[in-house]
User: Fold this.
Amino acid sequence: MSVLIKGGRVVTADEDRVADVFIEGETVSQIGESLDVEADRVIDADGKYVLPGGVDPHTHLDMPFGGTITCDDFESGQTSAAFGGTTCHVDFVIQPKGSTFTEALEQWHGRREGKAVIDNGFHIAVTDLHEGGTLEELATLPDQGITSYKLFMAYKGAIMVDDETLFRVMQVAADTGALVMVHAEHGDSIDVLVKQALAEGKTEPKYHALTRPPETEGEATNRAIQLARVAGCRLYVVHVSCQEAIDPIATAREKGWDVWGETCTQYFFIDYSFLERPDFEGAKYVYTPPPRPKENQERLWEAVQNDVLSVVSTDHCAFLWDGQKSLGKDDFSKIPNGGPGLENRLQMIHEFGVRQGRISLSRMVELLSTNPAKYFGLYPRKGTIAVGSDADVVVFDPERRVTLSASTHHSRCDYNLYEGTEVTGSPVIVLLRGKVIVDGDEFLGRAGEGQFVKRARFGEQLGGRSRMGLVAG
Ligand code: URP
Ligand code: ZN
Ligand code: ZN
Assistant:
């Protein structure tokens, strides 16, 4: 099967030009002006953008958390991703306490098999590390394509790790070349503040934010950076939400340390006041770190402009408002932490980043696709449009007007964080490895066609298929 995408504005992190893209089988085989080729299907992309498929490095599909399970499984979550122009993501395998990493990975493979409609890799989240067992096992994971280790510095009593575990994982990463990812909040002080708030009868959703002040994020971010320097590993700070966390990352990057940071779409748009919405509506915005005071939003835009933060992910961790968030009706600490958003990242960043003049189209591609592919060992197979790369391509109509809503999105979530937001610009055709999986409002992907991607280590480029390894399912 061959596809010719004709006359679109092909935008990568480095280039922005009108060209044809010719796809043979699963890969891009030619890019150029007025290509003289025969194709099985020709897509007229005149007036459209032709973008590399989005890579979302931070998602939680079918994940047990907060006493329940996230409402999107791999099929619904990935279908939603595809409609939003994301063709690859890296999901978190959370090691159940007492399990080996191999057991945890088996569980997560079982969750995606037969359901996956786009490609994905896995990070491993370490919760239980001991010598003579998981400590040694951890070192074997990069050779299996699991090249990032995640540590939660919060969620005390659940998945939080102590500093010894954090540091030991960092030392393993320094040896294996894996990237260490941290959820950076000071879990001990938050735990005290939550208990004190509840003892005082403070139970509404807004106390989720009031018991996790920005300083707790700043402290943990700085601690992780300093410990990573001692251990000599690379560090990636997930879901940065506020100035207090931006500052230590900015310092680290100025000094040339191996530190990178990500923010998520929601932190640009949703502020603390959303948590104060009446009738338990605030629970929709209970995710962690929490929505911050509004002034942080411009600081986040500046940080992505200046490359202090270099990725925008979604942290899609969706729970139903009716039936799951309601577990915390009388106690904010029982509201499962997480929000939806996998489908709307490109539309929102295009509208408020590109159309409102904050970032260029190429920078948008870099933040949503190229940088996550590079940092997480997917580049150049993913994250760009180049000869030899996977033909994961989004044909994006910059004039298409859409109103974002739970009534039209493809996630199972019963609310949308951006409900009623009008955007101009949306994907119209999405290809996964050369196959059209979204055509207008129609989904043409098939469960089981998404592939598991074994990722390279940070800085190692993936080109040939032999190096990458793919598992259908
Ligand atoms: O509230 C959130 N973000 N839930 C998902 C788990 C995490 O902390 O990333
Ligand atoms: Zn987190
Ligand atoms: Zn997360």
